[in-house]
């Protein structure tokens, strides 16, 4: 099973995501000037930072699920759909054992806990312009 999140504002104008069996789990709009997490996921203890210049201060969070068999197709569709400016990305886990991080034109897939795999995706994100505090997709 795939589980992930896309920020609607990260998609190019005219982007159309069509992947069979992709199922919407949650759709929410949240103000993100102080944290890039939905309100119910924020922690008072966390060092949180919000949207940066050029990003809207309200984001639409799209949480989804799909069969693991569409992981490669979903990554390919997202690489074409994501806005390259500001290093926007989307992510999803596959069977709770792998993590896929997708930027415009480049996708990464590594086993959860693989520090080298995660570091490669982080390095790409930095080079693509992702704000440092937004390189926070987890293990």
Radius of gyration: 14 Å
Q: How many strand units?
A: 6
Q: What level of helicity do the residues show? A: 10-25%
Write down the domain tally.
1
Strand content: 25-35%
Low-pLDDT segments: none
Shape: globular
Widest beta sheet: strand line-up: 2-3-1-4-5-6
- Describe the biggest sheet? 6 strands, antiparallel
Mean pLDDT: 93
Order of helices and strands: EEEHEEEH
Biased composition (Basic and acidic residues): 39-50
Region (Disordered): 35-54
What report would you give on this structure?
By secondary structure, the protein is an alpha+beta fold. It has one domain. The protein is built from two helices and six strands, in the order βββαβββα. The protein has a six-stranded antiparallel β-sheet, with helices on both faces. The longest helix has 14 residues, at 115-128. The two termini are 18 Å apart. The mean pLDDT is 93.
Write out key terms for the chains shown.
single chain, 139 residues, alpha+beta, 6-stranded antiparallel sheet, globular
Layout of secondary structure:
Blueprint (H helix, E strand, L loop, with lengths): L1 E6 L15 E9 L26 E9 L4 H11 L7 E6 L3 E6 L2 E6 L3 H14 L11
Antiparallel strand pairs: 1-3, 1-4, 2-3, 4-5, 5-6
Could you give a quick summary of the protein structure above?
This protein has 139 residues and is of the alpha+beta class.
């Amino acid at each position: 099973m795939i589980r992930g999140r896309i920020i609607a504002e990260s998609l190019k104008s005219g982007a159309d995501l069509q992947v069979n069996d992709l199922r919407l789990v949650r759709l929410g709009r949240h103000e993100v000037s102080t944290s890039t997490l939905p309100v119910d996921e924020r922690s008072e203890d966390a060092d949180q930072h919000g949207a940066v210049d050029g990003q809207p201060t309200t984001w639409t969070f799209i949480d989804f699920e799909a069969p693991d068999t569409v992981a490669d197709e979903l990554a390919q569709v997202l690489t074409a759909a994501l806005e390259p400016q500001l290093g926007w990305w989307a992510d999803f886990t596959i069977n709770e054992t792998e993590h896929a991080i997708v930027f415009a034109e480049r996708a990464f897939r590594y086993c959860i806990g693989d520090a080298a795999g995660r570091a490669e995706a982080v390095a790409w994100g930095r080079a693509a312009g992702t704000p440092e505090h937004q390189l926070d997709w987890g293990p």
